[in-house]
Automatic annotation (TrEMBL), chain A:
<keyword id="KW-0472">Membrane</keyword>
<dbReference type="InterPro" id="IPR050107">
    <property type="entry name" value="ABC_carbohydrate_import_ATPase"/>
</dbReference>
<protein>
    <submittedName>
        <fullName>Unannotated protein</fullName>
    </submittedName>
</protein>
<dbReference type="InterPro" id="IPR017871">
    <property type="entry name" value="ABC_transporter-like_CS"/>
</dbReference>
<dbReference type="InterPro" id="IPR003593">
    <property type="entry name" value="AAA+_ATPase"/>
</dbReference>
<keyword id="KW-0813">Transport</keyword>
<feature type="domain" description="ABC transporter">
    <location>
        <begin position="3"/>
        <end position="239"/>
    </location>
</feature>
<feature type="domain" description="ABC transporter">
    <location>
        <begin position="255"/>
        <end position="499"/>
    </location>
</feature>
<keyword id="KW-1278">Translocase</keyword>
UniProtKB/TrEMBL annotation, chain B:
<keyword id="KW-1133">Transmembrane helix</keyword>
<protein>
    <submittedName>
        <fullName>Unannotated protein</fullName>
    </submittedName>
</protein>
<feature type="transmembrane region" description="Helical">
    <location>
        <begin position="149"/>
        <end position="173"/>
    </location>
</feature>
<feature type="transmembrane region" description="Helical">
    <location>
        <begin position="237"/>
        <end position="256"/>
    </location>
</feature>
<feature type="transmembrane region" description="Helical">
    <location>
        <begin position="28"/>
        <end position="46"/>
    </location>
</feature>
<keyword id="KW-1003">Cell membrane</keyword>
<feature type="transmembrane region" description="Helical">
    <location>
        <begin position="361"/>
        <end position="383"/>
    </location>
</feature>
<dbReference type="InterPro" id="IPR001851">
    <property type="entry name" value="ABC_transp_permease"/>
</dbReference>
<feature type="transmembrane region" description="Helical">
    <location>
        <begin position="326"/>
        <end position="349"/>
    </location>
</feature>
Amino acid sequence: MKLELRGITKRFGSLVANDHINLVVNSGEIHALLGENGAGKSTLMNVLYGLYTADEGDILLDGVVQKFKGPGDAMAAGIGMVHQHFMLIPVFTVAENVVLGHEPTGILDTLDIDTARKRVREISDRFGFEIDPDALVEDLPVGSQQRVEIIKALARDAKVLVLDEPTAVLTPQETDELMGIMKGLAKAGTSIVFITHKLREVQAVADRITVIRLGAVVGEAKPTDSAATLATMMVGRAVDLSVSKKEPKRGETGLSVAGLTVIGDRNNKVVDDVSFEVHAGEVLAIAGVQGNGQTELAEALVGLRTPSAGSIHLGKMDITHSSVRDVIDAGVGYIPEDRSKDGLVGDFTIAENFMINRSYGPPFAKGLNIDFGNRERIASQLIGDYDVRTPSQVTLAKNLSGGNQQKVVVARELSRDLNLLIASQPTRGVDVGSIEFIHERIIATRDAGKPVVIVSTELDEVTSLADRIAVMYRGRIVGIVDAKTSRETLGRMMAGATV
Amino acid sequence: MSDVTETPVERRGVAVVREIMSGGSTRAILSVVAGFVIGAIFMVFSSEEFLAAAQYLTSRPTDALSAAWTAIAEGYSALFRGSIYNYKADDFVAAIRPMTETLRFAGPLIASGLGIALAFRVGLFNIGASGQLLFGALWATWISTRVSLPGGVHLVVAVLVAILGAAAYGAVVGFLKARTGAHEVIVTIMLNYIAAGILTFFFRTPELLREVDGGGTPKSDAPALTAQLPLLLGSEFTLHAGFILAIVGVFVYWWLMERSTLGFRFRMVGHNADAARTAGINVERTFVVAMAVSGAFVGLAAANQALGVQAGLTPDLDGSIGFDAITVALLGSSTAPGVLLAGLLFGAFKAGAPQMQVIGLSPEITGVVQGFIVLFIAAPPLVRAIFRLPPPQKTTVIADWWHKLTTKGDAK
């Protein structure tokens, strides 16, 4: 089915999220929609899927103008969408999930699960998905869950499949498998819209590429164009994705973790007997696919989770059971992975956000009072130093873009006198320009002789920042390797293989 | 990564409070207007002239209209005479007495409203003003009737005990929430019953607080003269120093929430408890402290009720203050000036209701108006629809102005 978007415009108040976007996806084509976070990709796809109504423009399927009042209309017209966050019910089987919402029924309105099972097996066999219709979704690995989502769309005869950032949660191997599946589907005639900001994947799988920036189409590109060309189109200027850094000057041990075990929310060992050391002046990156215990490890290091066994030493100081406040006061800077939940108070101003972890004493407090003079001075200095783009320091944090929000967090944490920096997903959802800036600051912290721990699921980020890489899998550290280790080896480690 | 920055899933109750609080003064004023309009409808339909004229509405509609207008005008001028200035009074003292009565009624509403407002700002629903007030009043009554102290000292001690008693009762709520995860709404409602029971028990038991030569009904002695809140305007008026306590409370509340680091941490927890925890704030301890401070403000109202009288007290000494306080905090957007104004408005309703009864109107109409005002506040889309307001803006002119006023000169 040929999909055509003509002059799609979507405004939210004064913000133009989509500005007269034209897009043609031919039958059986994999069309990559490439753009930074915040470029308007998801808005466009939500318009296509009937979740938003376009202010202007038309959606055409095989030349016929469509009017979608909701996702139901879009699905009926043959559009399927695989969201970044899966819309699956974990305690249901694959077959039950696939038919949810349009269940085949037998006599007396009972669920005809056999028909559902057969349909799943049919699709799975046809495209080589290797999915058991009777498996519970919660027992499946993430990559398989994603395939269930794809089966869901195909079971409803989707002719146009939209994949929204499908590789964010996958291991490199799973990513490769997904790309194989995409190619197979395209060959069978399904049109695929592939939303991503990862250049490598676009080059590997796309037939055509449309780049959008700030809500408008910048142009089309070919998969054979170089990564640098694509990146330049995405951000509108040449960017250097690699981080230039000197050899690390290792000092004494700054952080040593021994036998650390953390029991998680579901009473399982989310961090399992983890030991490592980080020296002053080096960056240790904790790599791994999301959900393998990295988050919990970082939270344990800063006192947000209590370890059930093991120890954490900051220099010579035992901080295993210290409160968060004591850890902060001991000079541990922490950039949490979810800035809007844990890193910022959205309804506070930028200036207020600079003082949230230092409200007890100088420079932000004078006795029982907030020191407004100091706060104003420090805020304007940090806004300048860290290039936070904001109309004023009394702008609410929630009104900033993702990159600027992250700069506020980074500024707050790095402007203190640190003995250790822990940065979890420091550039998640951040524009390329800000990524560069934040990476530079992290390396500068290292070069100032501080130990730095980075937790990241982005392999590019890990390899460009780290001096050493620890790979986590199911709560354990599979191995600690040099930063020059090949992507393939790292990928295998992320899937659990020991070196 | 999605293009839309995801907002954290917050506790639903907190989100609702934030939505209600975010309306600002525009919506508060419009809600009051809408409430008065509904009050007017009630007045019209309780007017016999109107009902009579309505019988022949189609032949002479002007009769009904003018009867309706008369009913509204008479009703609200009675409210005005009862609460602000009685222009029909014989002398000046009688003419301005309503205004002083409004202030007298407003005092405890403002004080307890501040307590509820503080809890709201920390993301807590304190429905327990009634219990905290009764518990504070219980110990203040003990001091005022069972302890002899020199003048001056006696009153100060009694007021402090009222504050501490109410604060302790509030802290229990915070403690139970922090330790057991019990929801503060359930806990405060139950503690209201418990406080009422304890107070009645004390007022009924001769060995405890029952009036010395009283009968079987639960009642205390009148507070000792040395422990009574002094009258402010001489014996011609009943306005006493309880109102001063409330005004002091307003200033303390303003300082606490806008200037102090403790208030900063309260607000931080209220806006985003996860971020507060990550920033090293002990969120559970903050709940306990916040509920204690919330109770302390209610304690000012307890002092007002226990020490602002010359007669013995009965177990219903809290009146409807405990629940009116919630409406005051909501209408006042939990800000110091907002609570002050809202408390004055509802105080005026209480003071003015009897005058409405004098002209044959049901005084409960003021209760209906009060209820509708808060309903409009609590159901923002309703007011927006009635007045065709635009969807909520991120800031309003008044919010900006207020922000500039409270954070001196960080405008850049």
